[in-house]
Write a structure and sequence with these properties.
single chain; about 220 residues; alpha/beta; TIM Barrel
Length: about 220
């Protein structure tokens, strides 16, 4: 069962994916579920849950901006304050019953960096992110192995065309968010997908620099 574990909706200012389009497109591609993430918001996940599609597993979440970089909060809808320290953010996610994933750890603009991941209590590491470079994904996979943590994968899609470009395979019978979280924590998953191409890198860097300058050189 394939799940895209990192999808942004139009509740993120930098994404154009509508929630209904995400479900429709991923189902057409043979996917069984997805994690709906938005920047410091759970509105996309809430909207996805409200659709009530029994043939598609919805895992709500938030991509939280900590003081050091992004952290994925999986299977929560309650707000997590932004700009807290890494350990404090992880503690809050756990307090709310979710799990904390370190996404794209080697990304300059929004990654936590290796040291922040090594010294904190993450539940998993994003080993393949379709918007990250091949080298960054290789290092992320090595880091997960070094820390003996599960590796997950997701497209980090911000548009319909890239949905499902990276994904996590779950055991048959993973028919709820709770079962998916249990499988992640147990490490009974496999990851597959593409890294960012050279053509996409040019557009990505240009867009990232523009947005970074617009934020006053701060992480999102």
């Amino acid at each position: 069962m394939r799940f895209d574990l990192h999808v942004h909706t139009d509740h993120s200012s930098d994404s154009e994916n509508s929630v209904r389009d995400i479900v429709r497109i991923l189902k057409a591609k043979g996917f069984s579920g997805a994690v709906f993430l938005d920047h410091n918001s759970s509105e996309g996940g809430k909207e996805a849950l409200s659709i009530g599609d029994k043939e598609f597993v919805v895992i709500p979440g938030i991509e939280v901006s900590s003081s050091e970089g992004h952290i994925l909060a999986l299977n929560i809808i309650e707000p997590v304050p932004r700009d807290m320290g890494v350990a404090e953010t992880i503690d809050k996610i756990h307090e709310l019953g979710g799990i904390a994933v370190a996404p794209h750890p080697y990304r300059y603009w929004s990654g936590l960096g290796e040291e922040n991941v090594l010294r904190n209590d993450f539940d998993a590491i994003e080993g393949i992110n379709a918007r990250s470079s091949p080298g960054s994904n290789k290092k992320a996979m090595r880091l997960a192995k070094k820390m003996n943590l599960p590796a997950v994968a997701g497209s980090d899609s911000h548009n319909n065309e890239s949905l499902g470009d990276a994904y996590t395979v779950f055991p048959e019978g993973t028919d709820s968010a709770e079962k998916a979280i249990e499988a992640i924590v147990a490490g009974s998953i496999e990851v597959y997908g593409n890294s960012r191409t050279k053509r996409r890198t040019v557009a990505y860097v240009s867009k990232s620099v523009t947005e970074w300058l617009g934020r006053g050189m701060k992480k999102m």
